[in-house]
Amino acid sequence: MKVLLAIDGSSGSDVAVNEVATRPWPADTEIEVFSVAKLQVPNTPDPLMLAATTYQELLESERQHAQGFVVRAVENLRQGAGTKDLDITAKVTKGYPQDVILNEANEWGADLIVMGSHGHSLLGRFLLGSVTHAVVGHASCSVEIVRHRP
């Protein structure tokens, strides 16, 4: 079984990591901890590309930040009762989260995508979009959303 654990460093992702770590998985299960570094691209023209260097620096900073919480998640999984003996890998990439998560699940051949929920209201999902909603609607494998209860 291949489990893609998509995280973003939020408390909802922490709950998803803990859920995966405590569950009894079959011995041949592979887990990939996956995160996406992204920045909103400003909708202003920049014909001289003056902001391009700053954008690349900010994107690299975001990638390093994502790498940090991915490493912590892998450490937690390697100590988890249900995951300590499993094959666990990590990957950080850049792009639009819903697109990249779906692409990674397809290319890697994931059987299950596990994600934490942010718990946005209907208005919040409308204004901010919902990565979780997009993944659930378009994934070619099963998706489990782990809810964070305050």
Question: What does this protein look like?
Answer:
It contains five helices and five strands; from the N terminus they run E-H-E-H-E-H-E-H-H-E. It is an alpha/beta fold and 150 residues long. The chain has a single domain (2-146), classed as HUPs (Rossmann fold, 3-Layer(aba) Sandwich). Strands 3-2-1-4-5 form a five-stranded parallel sheet, sandwiched between helices. The longest helix is centred in the middle third of the chain and has 28 residues, at 52-79. The protein is globular and about 50 Å long. The two termini are 31 Å apart.
Order of helices and strands: EHEHEHEHHE
| Second CATH tier, the architecture | 3-Layer(aba) Sandwich
Unreliable runs:
123-128
Counted up, domains total 1
Q: What is the CATH first-level class name?
A: Alpha Beta
SS elements, strand count: 5
The oligomerization state is single chain
Q: Which percent band covers the strand fraction?
A: 15-25%
Helices and strands: which structural class? alpha/beta
**What fraction, in percent, of the residue positions are helical?**
40-55%
Strand order of the largest sheet: 3-2-1-4-5
Give the overall form.
globular
Average pLDDT over all residues: 85
CATH superfamily: HUPs
The rounded distance between the terminal residues' Cα atoms is 31 Å
According to CATH, what is the topology? Rossmann fold
**What's the tally of helices?**
5
Biggest beta sheet attributes? 5 strands, parallel
Give the C-alpha Rg: 16 Å
